[in-house]
Design brief:
This protein is mostly helical. The chain contains four helices and no strands. Helix 1 crosses helix 2 and helix 1 packs across helix 3.
Length: 82
C-alpha cells in the first residue's frame, strides 16, 4: 500500500519461491538458477530485485495482533488473504 516498485515484485517473489521449493539457496543462486529456465516475466529481474522483494516481505507492519509474540510482517498479511 503506497509503495511503488520499479520492477515486477510479484515475479521476483514467484521466482524466489520456485527456487526455494525446488533447489534452495541464496538470492544470488536463485538468479543463476533462473537463467536456466524460461519463466515468464523474469527476463528483466536482477539480483537487487530479489533482495528488495524479500526485504519487502519481511517488513514489519504497524498492526499487531493482541498477544502476538512476533511482529506482523507483510508476508503474514499475504498468507492470511490466501
Amino acid at each position: 500500500e503506497g509503495r511503488q516498485f520499479g520492477f515486477a515484485v510479484e515475479r521476483a517473489v514467484f521466482v524466489a519461491t520456485l527456487h526455494r521449493l525446488f533447489v534452495s539457496g541464496s538470492d544470488r543462486a536463485c538468479l543463476d538458477w533462473m537463467e536456466s529456465y524460461a519463466i515468464d516475466g523474469s527476463e528483466d529481474l536482477a539480483l537487487h530485485h530479489f533482495y528488495r522483494a524479500m526485504a519487502w516481505l519481511g517488513e514489519e507492519i504497524e498492526e499487531k495482533a493482541e498477544g502476538a509474540l512476533a511482529p506482523r510482517c507483510v508476508k503474514d498479511v499475504i498468507e492470511e488473504k490466501l
